[in-house]
Design goal:
This is Cytochrome bc1 complex Rieske iron-sulfur subunit. It is a single chain. This protein has 352 residues and is an alpha+beta fold. Helix content is 32%, strand content 14%. Helix 2 runs antiparallel to helix 3. The radius of gyration is 38 Å and the shape is elongated.
Length: 352
């Protein structure tokens, strides 16, 4: 018999709960709210020995994560980067990459598995319903939320299950070390390489265009000449790395126009030598204004006054261009009297 055959007065009345959901279906409301099923306790809820076993399982997973992280660091340090091994079914692979992948994957997986097992076996799994409320909660609602939070914190048993808590904190503390170790692979450590160039006492100044040593008479007032240190050739395998630090520009200014005393003393008859590398992001400086003795970086318009120690007068550069002390040797050629006394190019975190 269908509901259409039953008199309307004999049909069960639809009942609404606090949410407006229909508890009993009828023709007008064919979809009833079944409500929540009866809560079923887990074995860990009623058997403390089972709960202890789950606790040890979670702690074991977190411990494995810590050991895997330590293995990651050990593999990074101990395995040569060019070592190749055969691993079935992958074939010949990089031993370092394989070891790093396995240990890091195991470390992350066991943290996740431990957290999931903890939640499924020890944390409270009883479903609760609550009536929706306005965005701006009433004071009593906020108080209830805090009570629920405290209750949830209590039911998580974080304070009670100290073994889980301590191993979890250990795993979470060690995992970031993997990222810290990987940062080492961003490039070789600079050590003191940024503080030294190929310039040294007695090294001849070579014209970049002609490849010949330079005499003072080769540099005329108002000109800008680019130079490199003696012995650095374009076919050298490290030419680009070295010229990026040692590139030099020479300018001749009337001595009476030079504002800084040290700048004058470090030159020779008004010939001044400065690093060509901009102190902003390392672009090569190439634009010279003869009347003002200013040089301009074409990348971001940083401007330096060569008559005043190459100080920054405009733009984003953070400090002056380093000056190279120069002189003339017994044969009349321009030479360096030392290396730059400060690092060339952009600032870096270790720079004094």
């Amino acid at each position: 018999m269908s509901s259409q055959d039953i008199p309307e007065e004999n049909l069960p009345a639809a009942q609404d709960d606090a949410h407006g959901a229909v508890r009993v279906a009828d023709e007008k409301n064919p979809f009833a709210d079944p409500g929540l099923p009866p809560h079923e306790h887990r074995r860990q809820d009623i058997d403390e020995r089972a709960a202890k076993r789950s606790e040890r399982t979670v702690a074991l997973l977190f411990t494995v994560s810590m050991l895997a992280t330590i293995g990651f660091i050990a593999a990074f340090v101990a395995i040569p980067v060019d070592e190749i091994v055969y691993i079935f079914p992958f074939g010949h692979v990089s031993a370092l990459n394989f070891a790093l992948g396995v240990t890091l994957g195991l470390s992350l997986f066991t943290i996740g598995a431990g957290a999931v097992h903890w939640a499924r076996t020890l944390m409270s799994d009883e479903e609760l319903t609550d009536e929706r409320h306005a965005i701006e909660a009433e004071p009593q609602v906020r108080a209830k939320v805090m009570d629920d939070f405290r209750q949830g914190a209590k039911e998580s048993q974080l304070g009670r299950r100290k073994l889980i808590r301590n191993t979890m904190f250990g795993a979470l503390a060690l995992v970031p070390l993997s990222g810290v170790v990987l940062m080492r692979e961003l490039g070789p450590l600079p050590e003191d390489k940024l503080r030294h160039t190929l310039w040294s006492k007695g090294k001849l100044i070579i014209n970049m265009n002609t490849g010949e040593p330079m005499r003072p008479s080769d540099i005329v007032t108002g000109s800008l000449t680019f130079a490199k240190p003696e012995g650095l050739e374009e076919h050298d395998h490290d030419f680009q790395n070295e010229i990026a630090k040692a590139a030099l520009m020479l300018v001749r200014i009337q001595p009476e126009d030079i504002k800084d005393k040290r700048t004058l003393e470090w030159g020779h008859e008004g010939i001044l030598a400065y690093s060509k590398i901009c102190t902003h992001v390392g672009c090569p400086i190439s634009l010279y204004e003869q009347q003002t003795h200013h040089v301009l970086c074409p990348c971001h318009q940083s401007t330096f006054d060569l008559s005043d120690g190459a100080k920054v007068i405009f733009g984003p550069a953070g400090h002056a261009l380093p000056q190279l002390r120069i002189g003339v040797n017994d044969e009349g050629y321009l030479e360096a009297l030392s290396d730059f006394e400060e690092p060339v190019g952009p600032a870096f975190w270790e720079r004094g």
